[in-house]
């Protein structure tokens, strides 16, 4: 076995490689690099392997960090002044929404803010706090205890009542007072009706005496159109208007006031009589063989307009026997004319 060793004791060279592999175990020959001495280390650490040097430096680093941690100041929270600790010695809980006692003025958590829970020494349990009188308004109705936050006074008696009894009879009147008011209201209506009848009569007389017949007929037509009634199924372009006087033989049942009525100009005389009787709500016996059937008469002459029930209304307009807006009379009569003095 030939080998050389330097003066510092480090193995420099092994010449007999075959002898080493034959005589020594393979684990002793293949030594890990970390367990070999560091050739680049300082003189003081030349005997230490790489593994020992790594452990040494790790220990030094951990020791430095531990020392710095012990001497470093305590870190503060982001909001150090948020909340307060409970003043109770057995609690000391940090509460972000603390309560202050009204008696001792100390701060407590939600579980101990009550005077009884923290046994407050300044709380006087035998003192009854004074109660303020209620500001609610009690209903003035007898046997009613309903209260309201807002006072609701009656306009007449100036007394407060609840919503249920706000109509308590202050504005109710007896039968005599109601009858007096009704009569008072009917007086202007009667006066207006009388004045209107007089004016209408004067207008009618003026139209009869008017020399301008065409203008008088237009005025009469406008008057009738403004108040005319009739079947709603009659088209506007096919309507003709008449001021019809009801029969005087049934004045006890219906009013004697004439009524403006519109009809279809394509109807016959019989159809017009039927429709007019329905509007006035009077009996119509024209389909029977009895006497005194309904006929139409001219209000200016008193003569019967037409005794044939199948005559179209357009024929009467063409022959100038009728004009639009004319006054006519509906009467139970088989005579050729009627007394005009009965239809004023």
From TrEMBL:
Pfam families: Apc13p (PF05839), UBL_ZFAND1 (PF25327), zf-AN1 (PF01428). InterPro entries: AN1-like_Znf, Apc13, UBL_ZFAND1-like, Znf_AN1. One of its GO terms (cellular component) is cytoplasm. GO terms for molecular function: zinc ion binding. Coiled coil: none annotated. Belongs to the APC13 family. It comes from the Eukaryota. GO terms for biological process: cell division. Residues 80-128 form the AN1-type domain. Keywords: Cell cycle, Cell division, Metal-binding, Mitosis, Ubl conjugation pathway, Zinc, Zinc-finger. This is AN1-type domain-containing protein.
């Amino acid at each position: 076995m030939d080998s050389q060793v330097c003066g510092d004791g480090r193995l420099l060279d092994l010449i007999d490689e075959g002898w080493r592999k034959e005589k020594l175990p393979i684990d002793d020959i293949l030594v890990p690099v970390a367990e070999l001495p560091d050739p680049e280390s300082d003189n003081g650490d030349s005997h230490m392997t790489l593994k020992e040097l790594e452990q040494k430096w790790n220990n030094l680093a951990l020791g430095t960090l531990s020392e710095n941690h012990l001497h470093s100041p305590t870190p503060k929270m982001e909001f150090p002044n948020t909340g307060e600790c409970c003043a109770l010695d057995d609690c000391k809980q940090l509460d972000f929404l603390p309560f202050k006692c009204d008696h001792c003025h100390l701060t407590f958590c939600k579980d101990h803010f009550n005077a009884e829970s923290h046994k407050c020494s300044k709380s006087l349990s035998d003192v009854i706090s004074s109660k303020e009188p209620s500001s609610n308004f009690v209903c003035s109705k007898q046997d009613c205890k309903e209260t309201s936050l807002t006072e609701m006074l009656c306009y007449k008696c100036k007394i407060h009542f609840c919503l249920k009894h706000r109509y308590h009879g202050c504005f109710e009147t007896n039968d005599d007072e109601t009858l007096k008011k009704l009569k008072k209201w009917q007086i202007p209506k009667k006066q207006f009706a009388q004045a209107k009848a007089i004016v209408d009569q004067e207008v009618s007389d003026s139209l009869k005496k008017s020399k301008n017949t065409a203008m008088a007929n237009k005025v009469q037509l406008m008057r009738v159109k403004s108040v005319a009634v009739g079947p709603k199924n009659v088209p506007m372009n096919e309507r003709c208007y008449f001021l019809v006087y009801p029969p005087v033989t049934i004045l006890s049942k219906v009013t004697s006031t004439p009524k403006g009525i519109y009809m279809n100009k394509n109807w016959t005389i019989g159809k017009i009589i039927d429709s007019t009787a329905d509007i006035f709500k009077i009996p119509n016996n024209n389909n029977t063989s009895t006497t005194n059937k309904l006929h139409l008469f001219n209000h200016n002459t008193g003569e019967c307009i037409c005794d044939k029930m199948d005559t179209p209304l357009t024929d009467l307009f063409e022959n100038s026997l009728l004009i639009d807006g004319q006054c006519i009379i509906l009467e139970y009569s088989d005579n050729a004319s009627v007394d005009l003095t009965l239809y004023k």
